Amino acid sequence: MHEMSLAEEILQIIEDAARHQGFGRVREIRLEIGQLAGVEVDALRFCLDSVLHGSLAEGARVEVEHTPGAGWCMLCGMTVPISALFDPCPRCGSHQVQPTGGTEMRVKDLLVE
Ligand SMILES: [Zn+2]
Predict the structure, then answer these.
(1) 54-92, pLDDT tens digit by residue?
(2) In sequence order, what are the beta bridge partners of 72?
(3) What is the 90 CA–ligand 1 centroid distance (Å)?
(4) How far is the CA of 92 from the centre of ligand 1 (A)?
């Protein structure tokens, strides 16, 4: 499952940060998930629950911020908002839209103690 490997990646990032910054507990994890990243937030939360179990981030609150999707329409020659991959351009209806924003997921911030 896609979300399970994402959850494992997140734990990896947290453990690396803990090593470098020397913190022992994580109270809150803030994630930024793009509207076009194809991440099921509920599934990700579920996977994080099991992946973080027994780790330094066990029981941490998971906050998710959504970044809006955007694409470059070749016909309009401009950036347009899109809410899903392969959505047509909202201005001209063309499908020649290259996703340019909101395609990523990243760990934005950690609240540690
Ligand atoms: Zn267009």
Answers:
(1) 999 999 999 999 999 999 999 999 999 999 998 999 999
(2) 79, 98
(3) 7
(4) 4
